[in-house]
Amino acid sequence: MEQEFSSPLLENAVAEFAKLPGIGRKTALRLVLYLLRQDASVASNFGESIIKLRKEIKYCRVCHNISETDVCPICSNSLRDASTICVVETVKDVMSVENTHQHHGLYHVLGGLISPMDGIGPQDIEIDSLVKRVADGGVNEVILALGATMEGDTTNFYIYRRLSPYNVKITQLARGVSVGNEIEYTDELTLGRSILNRTLFTDSFSKEQ
Q1: What domain range is 187 assigned to?
Q2: Which region, left, alpha or beta, applies to residue 66 given φ > 0 means left and ψ of -120 to 50 means alpha?
Q3: Does residue 2 lie within any of the structural domains?
Q4: Tens digits of per-residue pLDDT, 105-132?
């Protein structure tokens, strides 16, 4: 393929930026040209921050949230309600729920949703570790805060079945979150109300009958 730019360095930089989600080649070019116009220290600091992030960031061994330590600040916070676990799909969903200030318990990040069409099964996401946390005791409620999508509902039901043998209340977000919506795209007010008005997961069965 014929090279689009006169400089291979520019071409390579644009190609790397364009790999980011939601960034096309035009936007990538604009970002690269912006960095070129700045002082060299700006680009240097930008690059070093990404490299340091990639090298030093960890995932909490308890909830799988991003952290700089083995156990994240939320899990290690003695003021949080350790008897309640809010199950979310991604790290970004933790941020969304935290911004509502309506959940004072802990989290569990699945890292994905069950999706047979995409070849993602229960073994590919952090469900076993969730079951272990419940089995170890001390958990009274598990809030299923997954998106109102087919994959979210499938994952909810699978988790419900896995946790059924344990004496734990399983709830889900009130359907203020529109069907088909993902948590990260739901406004904070709606999400906060959905947490406060959460319902027993078994209630969804009776509504379907």
Answers
A1: 77-208
A2: beta
A3: no
A4: 999 999 999 998 899 999 999 999 999 9
